[in-house]
């Protein structure tokens, strides 16, 4: 009989209330990923797509911090809009009908530079790298530029919308020209993202770009009465189509990415593989734009619920396959127990849980119970079997010698197992406690029964306590 694993107990136990997604937690202290499940300690890349946005401290302090940040952010945005409106009025004469092309180009450059996106004017579809070529910009820089671009496009649209009704007819015409030139320049980044080679980060970039284009350009079209054949709206429609094609191509490649994108060097102590933090963070980031995800990947189950469960299952299957390389008895099961727990914990403590089918959590808990049973069968059943009595029919002296020899074999097997498993790692303290209790509950009673059944075998005083102490030091890493 083995201890039942309950994910709720393991989440809210002695390790505090780590929540990598930034979701609400009823506990007052927050631990790091490495303290809770070990998935943050193995690689600096773990969970890099969705780092924990909340600092350590009480929930009330976090709430006050968020409130202050929102207040400061709102004031900053309003101030920026007012500043951009003043810049816009100063630049409008360059977009009046008689203005020279050179003056317009210079004004457009200054207008975009005011949003820190002047670099879009120098972009071409291959500037991020395309097809099989390596990216000319690092992935993090591409992500930074996409975020700056999205913020700039959103702010521009608000500036145009809030001010155009207060302008004269001629100013509105000039503003329309500025808006068209700005929108055309901003589409260059979207085109460059669509042209990126297929990769996990490309899908995130496509989703981050798709929404702003889909929302902002129709608003601009209605604001300035652009017809459906207007060059900006036509280019926007073509860009959206290219982004959808790019996202669907990446979506088809996601399972292959899970299998091959992250380095598969196996941890020697059975701890959580760094890919778990990487991919669970990635899946959460996909769902930041889950409505767009549903649309661009074709809707239905593939757009949310089914896709998330399928990708996590793919990750679990790869972990299971790779665990075969861990040949030491019981280590494969400990590795799978650690990783299944890390996946489960990250799923239920984030928005991912809303995209998982009923029974998903309980299925993983049962799987973890199976790993514990498999670990006991592989690692400790052979140790306990050394105490099996098979001395019937022999002379008393021979029986005593055989029983003493069996006890010595048990001690040797126990020492070998403890020596190896002290180096194995189970980072979560509750899960580590469950494993230690399960081992003790199966080994110590069998040892005591053997001594009670065979009082003729001499054992040093305190040997049972020493055995219990050895078992209490397992999985420290």
Automatic annotation (TrEMBL):
Entry keyword annotation includes Secreted: no
Annotated region (Disordered), positions in chain: 21-61
Lineage: superkingdom: Eukaryota
Compositionally biased intervals (Low complexity): 21-44
GO BP terms in the entry: exocytosis; protein transport
InterPro entries found in the cross-reference section: Cullin_repeat-like_dom_sf, Exo70, Exo70_C
Family to which the UniProt record says this protein belongs: Belongs to the EXO70 family.
Protein's recorded name: Exocyst subunit Exo70 family protein
Organism field: Urochloa decumbens
């Amino acid at each position: 009989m083995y201890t039942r694993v309950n994910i709720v107990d393991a989440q809210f136990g002695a390790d505090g209330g780590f929540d990598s997604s930034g979701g609400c937690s009823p506990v007052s202290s927050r631990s790091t990923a490495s303290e809770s499940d070990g998935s943050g300690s193995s690689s600096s890349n773990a969970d890099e797509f969705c780092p924990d946005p909340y600092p350590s401290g009480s929930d009330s302090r976090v709430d006050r911090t968020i409130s202050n940040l929102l207040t400061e952010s709102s004031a900053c945005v309003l101030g920026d809009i007012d500043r951009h409106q003043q810049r816009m009025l100063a630049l409008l004469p360059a977009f009046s009908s008689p203005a020279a092309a050179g003056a317009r180009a210079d004004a457009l450059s200054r207008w975009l530079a005011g949003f820190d996106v002047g670099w879009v004017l120098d972009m071409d579809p291959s500037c991020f790298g395309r097809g099989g070529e390596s990216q000319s910009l690092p992935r993090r820089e591409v992500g930074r530029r996409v975020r700056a671009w999205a913020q700039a496009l959103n702010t521009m649209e608000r500036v145009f919308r809030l001010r155009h009704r207060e302008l004269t007819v001629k100013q509105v015409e000039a503003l329309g020209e500025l808006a068209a030139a700005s929108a055309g320049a901003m589409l260059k980044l979207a085109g460059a993202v669509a042209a990126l080679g297929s990769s996990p980060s490309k899908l995130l970039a496509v989703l981050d770009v798709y929404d702003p284009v889909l929302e902002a350009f129709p608003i601009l079209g209605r604001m300035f009465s652009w017809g459906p054949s207007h060059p900006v709206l036509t280019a926007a429609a073509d860009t959206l189509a290219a982004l959808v094609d790019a996202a669907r191509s990446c979506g088809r490649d996601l399972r292959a990415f899970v299998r091959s994108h992250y380095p598969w060097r196996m941890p020697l102590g059975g701890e959580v593989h760094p890919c778990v933090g990487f991919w669970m963070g990635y899946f959460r980031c996909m769902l930041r734009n889950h409505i767009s995800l549903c649309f661009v990947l074709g809707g239905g189950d593939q757009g949310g619920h089914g896709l998330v469960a399928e990708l996590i299952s793919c990750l679990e299957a790869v972990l299971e396959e790779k665990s075969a390389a861990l040949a030491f008895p019981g280590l494969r099961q400990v590795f799978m127990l650690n990783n299944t727990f890390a996946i489960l914990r990250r799923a239920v403590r984030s928005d991912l849980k809303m995209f998982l089918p009923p029974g998903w959590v309980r299925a993983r808990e049962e799987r973890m119970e199976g790993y514990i049973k498999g670990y006991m069968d592989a690692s400790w059943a052979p140790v306990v079997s050394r105490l099996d009595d098979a001395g019937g029919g022999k002379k008393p002296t021979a029986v005593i010698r055989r029983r003493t020899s069996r006890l010595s074999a048990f001690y040797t097997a126990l020492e070998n197992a403890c020596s190896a498993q002290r180096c194995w790692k189970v980072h979560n303290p509750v899960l580590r406690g469950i494993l230690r209790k399960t081992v003790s509950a199966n080994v110590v009673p069998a040892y005591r029964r053997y001594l009670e059944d065979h009082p003729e075998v001499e054992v040093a005083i305190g040997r049972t306590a020493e055995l219990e102490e050895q078992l209490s030091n397992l999985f420290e890493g």
